[in-house]
Amino acid sequence: MVPNIYIGFFLHAPFPSSEFMRCLSKRKDILTGVLGANMIGFQTFSYSRHFASCCTRILGFDSNYAGIDAYGAHVAVDVFPIGIDVDAVRKLAYEEPGIGEIVNSIRKQYHGKRIIIGRDRLDSVRGVTQKLMAFETFLERYPQWRNKVVLIQVTNPTSVEEEKEESEAKISSQMSHLVSTINGRFGSLSFSPVQHYSRYLVPQEYFALLRAADIGLITSVRDGMNTTSLEYVVCQHENHGPLILSEFSGTAGSLSSAIHINPWDLGGVADVINQALLMTPEEREAQHSQLYKYVTTHTIISWSDKYLKRLLTNLSSFDQSIATPALDKSRLLSQYRKSRGRLFMFDYDGTLTPIVKDPQAAIPSDRVLRTIKTLAADRKNSVWIISGRDQAFLDEWMGHISELGLSAEHGCFIRHPRNDDWENLTEKSNMGWQKEVLEIFQHYTERTQGSFIERKRVALTWHYRRADPEYGTFQATECRKHLENTVLKRWPVEVLSGKANLEVRPTFINKGSIATRLVEEYKHGLGQDPDFVLCLGDDFTDEDMFRALANSSLPRDRVFSVTVGASSKQTLANWHLLEPADVIATIALLNSKTSS
Predict the structure, then answer these.
(1) What domains does the chain contain, in order, with CATH numbers?
(2) N or C: the chain end with fewer CB closer than 10 Å?
(3) 0.85 surpassed by pTM
(4) What GO MF annotations does this protein's record show (predicted)?
């Protein structure tokens, strides 16, 4: 591994849909590895959409068509249709010694006949068998073109071994059968409508064929960058031959002026071949001029220039000067050792325990409980868990630690150390909004499979972590709009968008108000401010705590506000730790340095 480098990743091949990707045993490893890049590029929009969908469905990350929010950082995703070296193709196709003679020889050999050219690798996604079947259908439907059209199909073997792979051998057998059938039905002793060459062509032969052709036919059923289509356009600058291009080709989106086909629709392809043959010179020239302009202005040089500029733009927007530094543990330990009164405020989910698909499964490990209990047992320490969880959950899993203070539902309830009673900080507020919110949540729960409602004493939470990730996100957006246009206009409540959930709660209470209250209670009880404060949280609700501490009168060198996540995450915290395991390790480190 090479740390602290910028990475740009580009995939010119198709990216599978989530339905295929989820079948791979190493699916998470592959996606996580790609997300190590700062920017990810794809040949087409559909491939970038598949990648974003995989990151959401398989890894659970928030995504859109501009990027992925992964591990606390934003990874840019964009589309960069790759081009060819047009100058090199021009030179090989028009300036290579002897190329003109080869072109004339091909045209002379097929004098009086229209030439359709195809060149593909010998694999299933290139659609060669579909091309041959469509050509057979064309000759059946349009008998007037028999003996007047020839299909020259060149296939490059994908394997260099003497014995072909099983799949390649199967495709080769199918092609041989189709070629024999077509030539037997529509050929003669002097002419075969399909000329099939299963070999590699030298550049002179290949570009001569592209120049001599009247139609380029590409029928790939799945494709990334298709160089043949681009090279064909450059080689047709004199002849203006139409390009028939599969809509599943990676270049179809770029070459919008080409004639697009569905290679599985054999009759449709046959009809398009006939239409291409009947195009007037003016129509051919108009189509070609648009294709030629695009291909010659979107070259491999312009592609690399665009890609690098976009990468540098993304990197410049990520200012290292505003990146949150890793927690300075030596400084933390130094202040901890010399302090006489300490205040700790910890979030729960994503801070002490990792985020999991089922919220009820996020129970604290034995190590977490031991570490927190040891920290709270120190008489110099005042330790609090400030969570969005309800009272019942915190009582069940943390309530046995008598020295520990608890705050539930983002500050709506508070339970002081060595006290079994909960104080309701919202008991004087009107809770009439709950009925309206519950009806709206029920509406979306009925329409979103896997979602459910969590009814707390005050807050109401709609979870969609078990739902289809993309549909759940869509429904959450619609639900939020619904709430904003109804309940929020009539009641003093707010909607919090959490990790795969929406929560509605009163506006006057949040984690920040609890943090302020705890600092004041500490000062009132002991007659002085704490001289060491460690506040840890991982999501936007914890930013209220960081904000409250930043606005307090506490000396900055005594306050350690720490976000859990990547350094690039936008936060008000002064420091960061990467994950919950680092949080527990840091607390354990403090426990080990506690003075006796």
Answers:
(1) 8-80 (no CATH), 86-300 (3.40.50.2000), 322-425+509-592 (3.40.50.1000), 433-506 (3.30.70.1020)
(2) C
(3) no
(4) alpha,alpha-trehalose-phosphate synthase (UDP-forming) activity; trehalose-phosphatase activity
